[in-house]
Write a sequence for this structure.
C-alpha cells in the first residue's frame, strides 16, 4: 500500500474498494448505465411492438390530413402526405435499431476474427494491419457512402457499407488486447503446458479481448445509427417509402418551416438512442476497462 | 509508403465492386449499345483486370487521377476548384473545436465529480449524440429563417471580403463542430484526469505556482501530447462531416460534389476524389506524428 | 522555550472512498523548531506522508478533508489559510521534495525551466539573472557540468541526478523548512548516502529546519535530532533520537529498532515485526497496534490509548509500558 498523496483518487479508492462486488452488481449501481440501458431498452421494445402500439399503417397516405400539427389524434403530427409521424418514427426505430445492431454484430465478429489472426499469425499481421490503415484513411462516412451507392439502395448495402467502415477500428482494438493478453503469465503457462494454439485462442485470448471490444461496439452501435441516418438523409441509405429516422428528416426538411414537427421528432429519437448508447458505452468502459477509468 | 499503394488499389476496387456491368450502370439503363461500348472503352473496361489496375496506378504515378464523366473536367481540377469551400469549412470548424473542446475537457477534469463536470460532460455527450445534419437544419430555421442573422445557404469566397465569408461559413462550421467539440472534450477530460494525478503536478503546486500555471502550463503541456493523437480523428470527422453539412447548406465543396457524383453515377470522379481524400488523411497523420514527436521530448531524443 | 517554527496540533485527515470517508491520520501532533531536524518514521501506510502533504495543503481537494486540528506556521494556521497565503509559503518558506524523483519532475519542461519557475514566482527573477542562479543552484547540489545540464529534459538524467534537481528546486528560495518525504527510498544504496550527505550539508549551510520522512529508522537516526514514530495514522511515540534508542517505550518502536541492521555485529540479524499494518478502514478496538504487539494486555483492547509524557522530552501512546517503566524509574 502506498502513502496517499495528491490526486491519488485511485489509490484512496483501492484502499477501500470493497472486494467481491460482481461486475453486474456494480453496473446496476452505475447511474449512466441505468439511464442508458433504460432508454435503449424502451426504444427497442417500442420498435418491436410498433404494430401493437399504433394501428395506423406507416405509409398510409391521407391527403386530407396533411400537415396536421401534434395533437391528441396525431401525437407527432402528420407529414406532407398525411402520414402519421408518430407511427413513422416508431417504424423508423425498427430499421435504425436493426441496422445499428446488425453493424455492431457483424463488424464485431469480423473484428474479433481479423484482430486475433493479426495478433497470432505474424505473417498475416502486417498485411491485415496495412489494409486496415488504408481503409481508415477514408473518412468512414464517405467510405460507407461509396459502398452503399455502389451496392444499390438496400438495407443490406447500408449494413455492409457501415460494417466495412467500422471494422478497422475494431480490429486494432482486438489486436492490441490480444497482444497484451498473449504476454500474460497464464497464457504463457498454457503454452508451456502444451495446449494447442486454437485452444489457447478460444479459452484465453478471445475472452480477454471481449471487454474492450464490447465497449467499442456499444459506441459503434451509436455511430452506425447516426451514420445510417446520415446516409438515408443523403438519399443513399434506406429508401422511401420505408421509414427510417434519416429519411423522415430528409423528407420533412423541405417543409421544415411550416411543419417543423415532421423533422423534429425523428431527430429527437436518433439523439436519444445515440445518447443512451453512449452512456452505456461510458458505463461499460468504466466498469470493464480500467484504462478508461475516470467517469462517474 | 505501402499504405498509399493499398489506398490506390482500394479506390480502384471501388469501381469493380459494382455488381453487373459497370459500363452499363454508368451509361444508364436506357443507353444504346454503342454508348455503353463507348463508356467501356473510355474507362478502359475492355481490358483485363490487371491491365486496368496497371494503367490506373501508372496514371496515378503521373499525377493523373482520372476525369469526370459529367463535369468535363479532370478530377484534380474539379477537386481543386472546390477545395477552398471544404478547406474553409474544415479549418473554421477545427478552429472552433480545439480551443472550446480543450477548455471544456480541462474544466471538467479539474472540477471532476462536481456539478461543473456533470454539466460539461452532459453537453459533450449531447455533442456526440445529436446528428449534425439535423441540428444544422434546426440552426438554419432559427438563425436564417427566423432571425435572419446569416444566409441559409451558399458560399461567399474569402476574396470577396472576410465578413461575408465568415457569415456564410459560421453556421455550417459551428454545426460541424458540435460532434468534434463533444469528442475532444471527452478525450481531453480523460487525458487531463490522468495528468492531474501525476506527481509532477504536486511538485508544481509545492513550488507555490498558481493553479492557473499548474493546470495551464504543467498539466496542459503533457495532456496535449495525448490530445494531439486525437486531432487525426478530429480532422477525419471534419472531412466526413463536411460531406453532409455541405449538402445541408448547399455549399459547393468537395463533399457535395462527391454526393452529386454518386447520384449521377460518375464513378471515376468518386474514385479519384476518394483517393485524394485518402492521401490527404495519410498526410495529416504524418504531420500529426511529427507534431507528436516535437511535443514530447522523450520521443524527440530517441 | 521559543514557539516552534511549525506546530501540527491534533490533525485529522480523511479520504473519500466509495462508501464514505475513511480516516487516514488521526489526532497527529508534532513540532518542528527553528533549525531543528525532525524525523518521522513508520511503515508505509502509517500516515507519515499524509501528514507531510497536509503541511503544504497538497492533498487533492475533492477527495480529502481535514475535520479537526491545526497546522501553525508563524502566525498562520495553514489549515485555514487563504490560497494566496498558501502559495506564498509553498516553495518559498516551506519547500518539499518527494519520494520518486522519476515522476516528480515534469517530463516536457527543461530542468532550467522548472527551477527558474520557482525563482520567478517568489523572487521575481527572470532572464539571465534567473539563469545564473539556476546554474549556481545546480552546482550547489553537486551536479557536474551544471551549465549544460540545465537545458536537459528530466528523462536524460539518472534517478540520483533528478533528486538533486528536486533539491535544487526546493532550496532555490532558501526556505526555512524543508520537508523531505522518503527522499532516498527510490534510489540505490550508494546514491542514498550521497543524497543524505548533500541534505545534511545544505541544512548546515542554509540553516534550514528539516522534516525528514522515512520508513528507515537507520536513516532517521543518522540525520534527525528528534524522532516521531507513527503507526496506522497515529503518533505512537516521540522522543529525542538518543533517548529513543536508549529507552524505547512503545513496543512498535522497539520492533523498529530491532529491525535496524547493526553495523558492528558480525552477523547482521534482521528482525521484523510479525503481521501487517491495518488499513484505514479496518476497525480495531483499543490500541491499533495490539494485534501485532508481543506485550499486549487485556486492557489494551478497551479503549484507544492516549499520548502520555514519560519525561526527557519523550512521550508515547502505551499506558501499560509507561506504567512498567515509570515504576522502574521512580
Amino acid at each position: 500500500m502506498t502513502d496517499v498523496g495528491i490526486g491519488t483518487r485511485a489509490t484512496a479508492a483501492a484502499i477501500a474498494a470493497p472486494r467481491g462486488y460482481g461486475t453486474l452488481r456494480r453496473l446496476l449501481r452505475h447511474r449512466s448505465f441505468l439511464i442508458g440501458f433504460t432508454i435503449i431498452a424502451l426504444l427497442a421494445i417500442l420498435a418491436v411492438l410498433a404494430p401493437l402500439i399504433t394501428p395506423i399503417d406507416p405509409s398510409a397516405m391521407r391527403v386530407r390530413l396533411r400537415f396536421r400539427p401534434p395533437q391528441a389524434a396525431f401525437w407527432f403530427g402528420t407529414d406532407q402526405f398525411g402520414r402519421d409521424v408518430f407511427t413513422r418514427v416508431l417504424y423508423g426505430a425498427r430499421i435504425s435499431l436493426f441496422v445499428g445492431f446488425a453493424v455492431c454484430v457483424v463488424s464485431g465478429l469480423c473484428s474479433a476474427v481479423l484482430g486475433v489472426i493479426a495478433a497470432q499469425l505474424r505473417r498475416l499481421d502486417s498485411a491485415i494491419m496495412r489494409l486496415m490503415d488504408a481503409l481508415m484513411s477514408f473518412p468512414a462516412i464517405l467510405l460507407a457512402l461509396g459502398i452503399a451507392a455502389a451496392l444499390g439502395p438496400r438495407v443490406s448495402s447500408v449494413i455492409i457499407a457501415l460494417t466495412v467502415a467500422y471494422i478497422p477500428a475494431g480490429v486494432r482494438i482486438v489486436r492490441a488486447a490480444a497482444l497484451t493478453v498473449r504476454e500474460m503469465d497464464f497464457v504463457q503457462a498454457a503454452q508451456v503446458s502444451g495446449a494447442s494454439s486454437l485452444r489457447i485462442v478460444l479459452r484465453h485470448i478471445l475472452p480477454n479481448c471481449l471487454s474492450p471490444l464490447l465497449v467499442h461496439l456499444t459506441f459503434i452501435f451509436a455511430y452506425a445509427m447516426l451514420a445510417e441516418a446520415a446516409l438515408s438523409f443523403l438519399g443513399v441509405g434506406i429508401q422511401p417509402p420505408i421509414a427510417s429516422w434519416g429519411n423522415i428528416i430528409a423528407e420533412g426538411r423541405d417543409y421544415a418551416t411550416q411543419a417543423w414537427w415532421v423533422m423534429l421528432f425523428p431527430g429527437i429519437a436518433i439523439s436519444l438512442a445515440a445518447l443512451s448508447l453512449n452512456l452505456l458505452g461510458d458505463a461499460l468502459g468504466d466498469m470493464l476497462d480500467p484504462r478508461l477509468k475516470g467517469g462517474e | 509508403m505501402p499504405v498509399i499503394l493499398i489506398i490506390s488499389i482500394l479506390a480502384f476496387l471501388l469501381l469493380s465492386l459494382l455488381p453487373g456491368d459497370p459500363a452499363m450502370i454508368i451509361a444508364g439503363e436506357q443507353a444504346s449499345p454503342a454508348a455503353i461500348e463507348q463508356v467501356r472503352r473510355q474507362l478502359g473496361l475492355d481490358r483485363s483486370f490487371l491491365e486496368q489496375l496497371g494503367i490506373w496506378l501508372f496514371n496515378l504515378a503521373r499525377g493523373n487521377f482520372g476525369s469526370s464523366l459529367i463535369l468535363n473536367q479532370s478530377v484534380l481540377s474539379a477537386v481543386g476548384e472546390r477545395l477552398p469551400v471544404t478547406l474553409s469549412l474544415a479549418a473554421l470548424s477545427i478552429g472552433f473545436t480545439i480551443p472550446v473542446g480543450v477548455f471544456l475537457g480541462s474544466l471538467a477534469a479539474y472540477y471532476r465529480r462536481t456539478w461543473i463536470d456533470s454539466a460539461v460532460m452532459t453537453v459533450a455527450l449531447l455533442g456526440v449524440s445529436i446528428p449534425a445534419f439535423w441540428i444544422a437544419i434546426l440552426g438554419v430555421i432559427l438563425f436564417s429563417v427566423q432571425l435572419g442573422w446569416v444566409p441559409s445557404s451558399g458560399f461567399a469566397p474569402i476574396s470577396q471580403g472576410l465578413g461575408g465569408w465568415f457569415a456564410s461559413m459560421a453556421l455550417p462550421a459551428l454545426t460541424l463542430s458540435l460532434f468534434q467539440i463533444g469528442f475532444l472534450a471527452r478525450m481531453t477530460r480523460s487525458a487531463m484526469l490522468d495528468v492531474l494525478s501525476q506527481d509532477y503536478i504536486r511538485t508544481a503546486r509545492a513550488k507555490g505556482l498558481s493553479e492557473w500555471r499548474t493546470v495551464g502550463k504543467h498539466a496542459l503541456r503533457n495532456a496535449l501530447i495525448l490530445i494531439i493523437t486525437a486531432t487525426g480523428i478530429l480532422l477525419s470527422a471534419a472531412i466526413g462531416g463536411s460531406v453532409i453539412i455541405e449538402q445541408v447548406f448547399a455549399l459547393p465543396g468537395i463533399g457535395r460534389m462527391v454526393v452529386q457524383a454518386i447520384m449521377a453515377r460518375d464513378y471515376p470522379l468518386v474514385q479519384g476524389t476518394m483517393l485524394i481524400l485518402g492521401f490527404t488523411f495519410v498526410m495529416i497523420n504524418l504531420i500529426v506524428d511529427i507534431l507528436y514527436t516535437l511535443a514530447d521530448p522523450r520521443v524527440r531524443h530517441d | 522555550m521559543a514557539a516552534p517554527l511549525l506546530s501540527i496540533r491534533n490533525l485529522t485527515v480523511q479520504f473519500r472512498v466509495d462508501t464514505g470517508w475513511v480516516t487516514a491520520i488521526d489526532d497527529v501532533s508534532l513540532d518542528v523548531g527553528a533549525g531543528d531536524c525532525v524525523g518521522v518514521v513508520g511503515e508505509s501506510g502509517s500516515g507519515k506522508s499524509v501528514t507531510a502533504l497536509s503541511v503544504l495543503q497538497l492533498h487533492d481537494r475533492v477527495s480529502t478533508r481535514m475535520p479537526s486540528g491545526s497546522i501553525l506556521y508563524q502566525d498562520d494556521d495553514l489549515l485555514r489559510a487563504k490560497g494566496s497565503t498558501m502559495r506564498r509559503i509553498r516553495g518559498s518558506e516551506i519547500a518539499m521534495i518527494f519520494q520518486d524523483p522519476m515522476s516528480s519532475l515534469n517530463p516536457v519542461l527543461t530542468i532550467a525551466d522548472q527551477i527558474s519557475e520557482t525563482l520567478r514566482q517568489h523572487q521575481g527573477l527572470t532572464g539571465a539573472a534567473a539563469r545564473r542562479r539556476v546554474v549556481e543552484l545546480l552546482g550547489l547540489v553537486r551536479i557536474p557540468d551544471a551549465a549544460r545540464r540545465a537545458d536537459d529534459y528530466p528523462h536524460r538524467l539518472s534517478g540520483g541526478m533528478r533528486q538533486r534537481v528536486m533539491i535544487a528546486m526546493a532550496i532555490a528560495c532558501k526556505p526555512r523548512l524543508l520537508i523531505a518525504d522518503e527522499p532516498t527510498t527510490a534510489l540505490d544504496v550508494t546514491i542514498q548516502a550521497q543524497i543524505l550527505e548533500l541534505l545534511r550539508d545544505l541544512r548546515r549551510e542554509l540553516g534550514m529546519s528539516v522534516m525528514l520522512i522515512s520508513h528507515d529508522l537507520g536513516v532517521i537516526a543518522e540525520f534527525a535530532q528528534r524522532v516521531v514514530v507513527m503507526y496506522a495514522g497515529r503518533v505512537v511515540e516521540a522522543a529525542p533520537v538518543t533517548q529513543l534508542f536508549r529507552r524505547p517505550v512503545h513496543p512498535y518502536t522497539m520492533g523498529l529498532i530491532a529491525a535496524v541492521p547493526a553495523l558492528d555485529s558480525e552477523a547482521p540479524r534482521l528482525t521484523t515485526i510479525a503481521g501487517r499494518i491495518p488499513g484505514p478502514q479496518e476497525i480495531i478496538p483499543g490500541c491499533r497496534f495490539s494485534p501485532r504487539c508481543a506485550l499486549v494486555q487485556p486492557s489494551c483492547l478497551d479503549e484507544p490509548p492516549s499520548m502520555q509524557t514519560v519525561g526527557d522530552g519523550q512521550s508515547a501512546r502505551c499506558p501499560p509500558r509507561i506504567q512498567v517503566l515509570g515504576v522502574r524509574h521512580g
